[in-house]
Amino acid sequence: MPHLTIEYSPGLAARADVAALCRAASAAMVAAGIFPLAGIRVRAHCADHVVLADGLPGNDFAALTLAVGAGRSPEALRAAGDAIFAAAQRALAGPLATQYFALSLEIRVIDPGLSWKDTPIHARLPGQS
């Protein structure tokens, strides 16, 4: 259950390729080697209304949140997070070169007792990580 959600400001789509960001993040998740391929999801959502920092209309952001199931060591998650963040930095190098952009990544570990799933994709992709 490694699901990466990317929330971004409306102006970012004009400054960066959000689809390429998704592909880069997904590739980094696969390369990390700790997530089952069948569980990887990367989705991006534009925030309709945004006020960021000092409120200038040119301010943009991308906030990445990775939700993962329990059972991975903090060290493994940190290494995966470093790789995903680096991939995002490369994909967003243009906006990051300005003083009008904010990038963040947070990893959340989900309590298995509070998580429900029904995912037949796993039967189609058994043993792939």
Describe this structure in words.
- By secondary structure, the protein is an alpha/beta fold.
- It is built from 5 helices and 4 strands; from the N terminus they run E-H-H-E-E-H-H-E-H.
- It has helices at residues 12-15, 18-32, 74-91, 93-96, 121-124, and strands at residues 3-8, 41-46, 60-69, 101-110.
- A 4-stranded mixed sheet has the order 2-1-3-4, with helices on one face.
- Helix 2 runs antiparallel to helix 3 (74-91).
- The radius of gyration is 16 Å and the shape is elongated.
- The N and C termini lie close together (12 Å).
How do you describe this structure in short?
The protein has helices spanning 12-15, 18-32, 74-91, 93-96, 121-124; strands at residues 3-8, 41-46, 60-69, 101-110. By secondary structure, the chain is α/β, with parallel strands linked by helices.
Structural class: alpha/beta
**Integer-rounded radius of gyration:** 16 Å
Q: Give the % helix.
A: 25-40%
Strand order of the largest sheet: 2-1-3-4
Given the C-alpha coordinates, what overall shape results? Answer: elongated
Distance between the termini: 12 Å
Strand elements, count: 4
Could you report the average pLDDT, rounded to the nearest whole number? 94
* Portion in beta strands: 15-25%
Run of helices and strands: EHHEEHHEH
Q: What's the main sheet like? A: 4 strands, mixed
Query: How many H/I helices?
Result: 5
Low-confidence stretches: none
